[in-house]
Amino acid sequence: MWLVRIWEERVCLTKLREKVTKEDGRVILKIEKEEWKTLPSSLLKLNQLQEWQLHRIGLLKIPEFIGRFQNLIVLDLSRNTITEIPRGIGLLTRLQELILSYNRIKTVPMELSYCASLEKLELAVNRDISDLPQELSNLLKLTHLDLSMNLFTTIPPAVLNMPALEWLDMGSNRLEQLPDTIERMQNLHTLWLQRNEITCLPETISSMKNLSTLVLSNNKLQDIPVCMEKMTNLRFVNFRDNPLKLEVTLPPSENIEEEEERELFGLQFMHTYIQESRRAGNQVNCSTTSPNSIDADG
């Protein structure tokens, strides 16, 4: 029996070796659209690997021995059926990118905070993640975080306290309002919040000095707050598909090219909306209270 097992392990290892390539001097294990529900322990013989790209292979779990791959820089296991992240992940101190989007993960272990080199973390479309451990704020190099299409009802404190974060996608969650402490994310330049249930914006959003892209389409915003005029770094905003109280028509453009480039619910729309709300005596400052405390007429 053990001879059969040894033979099977050798066959597996031979198959795996065939999947190893070198790109830009990096040793990569690349498998796509093949059936590998589990990874054999013989994979440990390939511990020089620096990158795993295993997509659509039906993988059910990340092997417990993952922590022994000390050279890993990129771990991309997106589009599988993984249900959990093993605690051993924290041993990967050189890991820079962890891509686990389109899986079935429900919780994230605190040990992920030990991946001190992590710069990019993608957990999109797992559908069931609703919180992150506070310890993840210790990821001092993390600049890119994708949490879209999950079950978050608020931006987790761990995210607000990530010091280097520049790009955040929390689209298609269940956010109802943004915390006043959102201004802590001082390095953030891109914030995707489309397809949530946000009813108002906190005044502190105007203190996010580096924010240049803000997507708020498909929410429940009734007004655009006046304080957003101060956000001089904003280059792209989107307020499309919100139940805004005022109907605003943009003034015609000087030329056709400008007209074509203009975002219908973008930056010019935002400034025009704020001017109109002033004119209508319907001035709305950014909300620092719950949406229920805003009077129906603004």
Automatic annotation (TrEMBL):
Keywords: Cytoplasm, Leucine-rich repeat, Muscle protein, Repeat. Residues 42-149 form the Disease resistance R13L4/SHOC-2-like LRR domain. Gene3D superfamilies: Ribonuclease Inhibitor. InterPro entries: Leu-rich_rpt, Leu-rich_rpt_typical-subtyp, LRR_dom_sf, LRR_domain-containing, LRR_R13L4/SHOC2-like. GO terms for cellular component: M band. PROSITE patterns: LRR. It comes from the Eukaryota. Its main location: cytoplasm. It is found in: Cytoplasm, Myofibril, Sarcomere, M line. Component of the sarcomeric M-band which plays a role in myocyte response to biomechanical stress. May regulate expression of other M-band proteins via an SRF-dependent pathway. Important for normal contractile function in heart. This is Leucine-rich repeat-containing protein 39. The gene is LRRC39.
